[in-house]
Amino acid sequence: MRKKVDVSLPIGPVHPIFKEPARIRCETAGEKVISAEIDLGYVKKGIENIMKGRPWQEVMFLAERICGICSVIHNMVFIETVEKISEIDVPQRALYLRVIVNELDRIQSHMLANYSYCYTIEHETLAMYLLNLRETAMDLIELITGARITCAYMIPGGVRYDLDDEKMAVLRAGLDKLEKDLTRFDGMFEGGSLIGLRSRQIGLMSEEEGRISHAVGPTARASGIVLDERMNHPTYQKLGFEPVIRYECDNYARIKVRFQEIFQSIGLVRKCLDDMPEGKIRGGGIVKAGKGSWAGEAPRGELTYNIETDEYGRIVDIGIRTPSIMNIEACIHYMLKGVNSAADVTSTYISSDPCIACNER
Amino acid sequence: MTGYVYEKSLRNMKLRIVRAPLQNLAIKEISDGLDMNIQKFRAMLIENFDMSYLENMPARYDVWKGDEVPEFPDRLLFTGFLTKYMPIITEDEMDLLLTDISGKMSGGMSEKEAVIYGREKIRELILK
């Protein structure tokens, strides 16, 4: 009989599956994971300290450099916090344009997350299909904002560029393509036997565990937790937003929530285009001294900015709580516990869509 | 190089995390609530928890603060937080302590004295 050996299994900091460095240490009995820990700090930026003392005009650009995948929401939440502190009103048209860009950013982020997951479970065909389709979403972001990643589209009191009828037609055509192709890819994911084998009942996190660790975003919503900052956002409330919730609590549910949310985002963008109010895209306003906190729903979940400004519009103090802080912790301490195979450790980790750049802000 | 990457002491990084504004605020509230030396509490956290736990501690603390629990003993002694949200003390140890406290209260100890006694015992359990 083979001797059973307890092993401490290190994964990372450099691993072919990881997009960014982190080191997971799994305590295993055979291949079953008993517990796991994570070491971070390989790419710490200290961006909050860099932001302190600088005027908002500079910090606005720094904020979207926290994360290259969800830069739009960092821009959006920073600007909305500043607007809240300074009581700056935003024209209705600009609010709708913000939702459009934010949802396009969510679409590309979710596609990248699902690409990473499919790649991790060795389903490279679907992975590459998704990565290719993501380019359509990136092109649409570029069409509206003029840039793919660091767009700096939102400014206090409005947005930089308007959307004319010609661009709206291109946007609608892009959305149709996204919806058509994604319906096929979603069907492939749902019906794939290999995918089911590698995803269902793996990486389980109960609703209670998700609540205790304050898991957020699709990671929490796949465990039946009704938590989405868009429910508290005035523009999304106008659009009749309802969060996507699933109850399987496994890797499969987390990926499916993202697929469903892409369809939902396509619907939201279409609704914005249909109901787009006429008028200005920029209001007025001066950044004042004050202190405030505001949260928005990033593709990975709740993103909170705590900001203090002075009378010259400089950032005196800033604290940023990114969603990956909560999700990585929930993944390491709950989802990985009890995983039966070392191969499932990486796929479970990737299913929580960890962003080390956000975590090591 | 391999030795450096794998065996690097993480204490400095962890110290930076626990001294970050949100973490500092939560740690101060807890150590003040337990009449405990903040540095000893920080040292215990650094020794016993990984970096993601420490990063997520303020969020866990906020969730615990949002829970509907009675003021005594849960809120005043941080019972749920120290067992469930940040597993510093085991459930069995906490149950024993709570049984001990309720025994002493039925023997005539006032609630105020029970809180002081409970906090002292919890400090011992945290630093053991």
TrEMBL record, chain A:
Alphabetical keyword list: Iron, Magnesium, Metal-binding, Nickel, Oxidoreductase
Cofactor: Fe cation; Ni(2+)
List of residues binding Mg(2+): E48, I320
GO molecular function, one term: quinone binding
InterPro entries the record matches: ComplexI_49kDa-like (IPR052197), NADH_Q_OxRdtase_suD (IPR001135), Ni-dep_hyd_lsu (IPR001501), NiFe-Hase_large (IPR029014)
Domain spans labelled NADH-quinone oxidoreductase subunit D: 124-282
Residues annotated as binding Fe cation: C70, C358
Signal sequence interval, chain numbering: none
PANTHER family listed in its UniProt record: FORMATE HYDROGENLYASE SUBUNIT 5-RELATED, HYDROGENASE-4 COMPONENT G
Protein name according to UniProt: Nickel-dependent hydrogenase large subunit
Automatic annotation (TrEMBL), chain B:
Domain of life, source organism: Archaea
Pfam families: EhaM
Protein name: DUF1959 domain-containing protein
Source lineage: Archaea, Methanobacteriati, Methanobacteriota, Stenosarchaea group, Methanomicrobia
